[in-house]
Amino acid sequence: MVGDRRPCTAYCHVMRIQDSLLSPVYVAQAAYVIARTARLPEALGPRCGTHGQGAQLRLLILGDSSGAGVGVAHQDQALIGQMLQHLVPSAEVAWQVIARSGATTAQARRMLHEAGVFDVAVLALGVNDVLRQTSARRFAMRQRSLIDALRSQHGVQHILVSAVPPLGEFTSFPQPLRGYLGRRATVLDAGLQAVCAQCRAVHVPFDLDPDPRWLAHDGLHPGPALYAEWGKRMAGLALARLS
Q: Taking the model in full, what pTM does it have?
């Protein structure tokens, strides 16, 4: 669920590091990752629609490249498509995807001007906050502001928040850069869990075994298997909260 489809926008922010002794190593390794990583496009297909029959459910996907379906060819294979497979037998789902490669939490908050009113929102954010060196305090504040805006301005009753992925387990990042990013991701996700508990949102952990089969061929973004599992989990949580 990592980063940006452009050559340097997200990964270059890895170079903004605090430790001056280790920074040359991180910079060199970040440059290496940029040079060898395939740049994948966002998934094709519509970003809004209505599907199914039954009780009405208004669903928003708000996020970064993973919300936009980078790693698969079409939105049918992406998070929204996989959620719909499990939702439409039980509900008429009016859905919208607002997601962009490289988006941080702050940028997602600004992207909400495109949003209407929803019952359920799924958030897929955090990786780019790690890469851009967002502090844990600022990340938590921005997540809280985003959740508050979803409730007060967009009527969202149920918010499902995807965990910050454990970047320390992504072997496409070399060491010691991988360890550094993993520690940063862990700290930000701990703050995210606290925000979710305070704001009555559901934190959905990333608890899958580190296995390349879950990822796209770039080794960074979700592949079809991960989108399928993620969509199934999110759909189940959405239905449980609406029943």
A: 0.90
